[in-house]
Write a structure and sequence with these properties.
Low-confidence stretches of chain A: 1-5
InterPro entries (chains A, B): Coprogen_oxidase_aer (IPR001260), Coprogen_oxidase_aer_sf (IPR036406), Coprogen_oxidase_CS (IPR018375)
Family (chains A, B): Belongs to the aerobic coproporphyrinogen-III oxidase family.
Pfam family, one (chains A, B): Coprogen_oxidas
Oligomer: homodimer
Radius of gyration of chain A: 21 Å
Keywords (chains A, B): Oxidoreductase, Porphyrin biosynthesis
Helix content of chain A: 40-55%
Strand order of the largest sheet of chain A: 1-2-3-4-5-6-9
Mean pLDDT of chain A: 89
Pathway (chains A, B): Porphyrin-containing compound metabolism; protoporphyrin-IX biosynthesis; protoporphyrinogen-IX from coproporphyrinogen-III (O2 route): step 1/1
């Protein structure tokens, strides 16, 4: 199968993979909580080019007309969740191309002002799961593929986005990651999550997990709070066949350059993305299953909502994907903001936990990222 | 008194005024709901220079230790409120000075890179009131004075911030405004709020209210939602003795240039700020008093929390003051973020009100700002 697949354009390989992964992930959550409402499947078309499928879990608010038509669901495993894919193409404004040149040597010599807007293609899966139980962590994962093409061919609507005519590909790259955000720390959960990702990365170079783990800690950081969003995972961006500054800066692992030893061809990076993407369900679902039956108090629910306020702060103030989506004309805002929790809370000078409490324990680990697995 | 006051430096006049206004506003809210807990007064000192006083209203969460020590307050008029003043000084990084040059001719010829950081002074009052009742609107007001000085004298800590030695003032300006954000539209409330502000502005030029009203509609806008944050009020920035592009662009009012007819000296602008600041209590407190006794349902509370989600989106994504505060090292984050509501809610594709509902009514006015008073 691998040989057959590699004959297809990368665009199409990515589109097929993220569609399959989305189905598997949604099926895993639905199997975990059979009496809960199903995910709502919401297919959409982008007028400027492309399509998407949002799979969203929510329980109607008790006061809404929808709630009157079905039994009350106040004890579902999930509180709000979204597992979305999008495959879009269009024109990238010169300013955006300029910004991307820094990370892509193949774009460096491009006279952007002369060229004007350039065609782009982007395909990705993005998910955020907010469970109801404060002892069950929130999780986020995202894998995406990006192409910038020459102006030779114009994208047109109609056929499948990944099979549209395209110009010469000037640059391509992969990005993604997966990270865990608990309200209460369970060290065994953190170790399980990181171990699963480390093992999935193992066949792609000794440096891969350590580089992606460090990168994740650095990216999911809330400077104005002086704390991480969660207990980390993996993160990467701008991964292609050119030298990569983050991997290069990491130096050597086991006598080999971290940048040389990582996957570098598009096929090799896609293989890595698939291994990491396939690790999502085993990295998270067992944790969710175990923590969802833990009894909890009103005080623990309040703490969860305060921590969700911080999640909102990170996503709206710093997250590049969210901000890019909000500032893109024609973006599907409901999909961009599906990452926000159903409820969040802000208290002035709120008590973040006295020494020795379980609240202080998680604050401590957010302020000082730990190594969870070697 | 007016002649005596004008002998004082503008810094000191502003510091005195905002302190008095803060006391009056807090007193008005405390008088309105005598059985509620008092505002918490929280004085702070900024290590890099300056001080502040945060006056904050909150009811301890029922599950918190603080709640056990006092009777439950589940029916207060306010849910969360902050009335803050800050008087700070320090060094403005070259990048920030550069950004300000566009609006201030006196800074234009300054070679920022050569000069490096410049001393600044900023004094302001900032308030956000989130009432508990969904029929009572949220309100925001802010008045501030800013100075950029030459490098001649270094600010030192110790004495009152506004009385510290200063270099030559290179630029100064006032900014501010006040705006109303209802979850449910009461046309009479909107008319009362705007009428009170219009009347307070009346003696400062015929163009003042119309310019500041339009400016407010443009500033408090959430592009990704295609809607205003609320039903407006007034907004202004960079007001000094130089020509002002926003007033100039407005053209003539009653045969006179809007920019020529507005207050232009520091003394005249301060007088205007005082009249607008003093109008806060009469513009808002009568509305709050009337709406706080309206019975409300769970469905109306849900709607209020959804609208508060939008408020969070505006403040974290677009509000210049909030973003400036979040990105400023050493800023007092708890004061910067006191504008956020105690609770907010996000639903995927949430029902924003069917035609003819009271929810749709407010959505309509947010999408199409109205003239509330001539």
């Amino acid at each position: 199968m691998a040989t057959l697949q590699s004959d297809k354009p990368m665009r199409q390989q990515v589109e097929e993979y993220i569609s399959t992964l989305q189905e598997e992930i949604v099926a895993a959550f639905e199997a975990l909580d059979p009496s809960a409402p199903k995910f709502k499947r919401d297919a959409w078309v982008r007028p400027q080019g492309g399509r998407g499928l949002s799979c969203v879990f929510a329980v109607p608010h008790p006061s809404s007309p929808a709630a009157a038509q079905q039994p009350a669901h106040t004890n579902t495993v999930l509180e709000k969740a979204g597992v979305n894919i999008s495959i879009v193409h269009g024109s990238l404004p010169p300013a955006a191309v300029k910004q991307m040149r820094a990370d892509h040597g193949s774009l460096k010599d491009l006279d952007v002002d002369e060229k004007g807007a350039l065609p782009f293609f982007a395909a990705g899966i993005s998910l955020v799961i907010h469970p109801r139980n404060p002892h069950a962590p929130t999780v986020h994962a995202n894998y995406r593929y990006f192409e910038i093409a020459d102006k030779v061919a114009q994208a047109s609507t109609g056929s499948a986005p990944s099979q549209q005519p395209q110009g010469t590909v000037l640059a391509w790259w992969f990005g993604g990651g997966s990270d865990l955000t608990p309200s209460y720390l369970y060290e065994s959960d953190a170790a399980h999550f990181h171990t699963t990702l480390r093992d999935a990365a193992a066949s792609h170079g000794a440096a891969l997990y350590p580089v992606l783990k460090k990168w994740c800690d650095e990216y999911f950081y809330i400077p104005h709070r002086g704390e991480a969003r969660g207990i980390g995972g993996i993160f990467f961006d701008d991964l292609c066949d050119e030298d990569h500054k983050t991997f290069s800066a990491f130096g050597e692992v086991g006598g080999e350059s971290a940048d040389k030893g990582r996957p570098r061809s598009a096929e090799a990076i896609l293989k890595m993305v698939k291994d990491l993407g396939n690790a999502f369900v085993p990295s998270y679902v067992p944790i969710l299953k175990q923590r969802s039956s833990t009894p909890y108090t009103e005080a623990e629910r309040r703490w969860q909502l305060l921590r969700r306020g911080r999640y909102v702060e990170f996503n709206l103030v710093y997250d590049r994907g969210t901000r890019f989506g909000l500032l893109t004309p024609g973006a599907r805002i409901e999909s961009v903001l599906m990452s926000l929790p159903e409820e969040a809370r802000w208290e002035y000078m709120s008590d973040m936990g006295a020494l020795g409490t379980r609240e202080a324990e998680v604050q401590e680990v957010l302020q000082k990222p730990r190594v969870w697995v070697q």
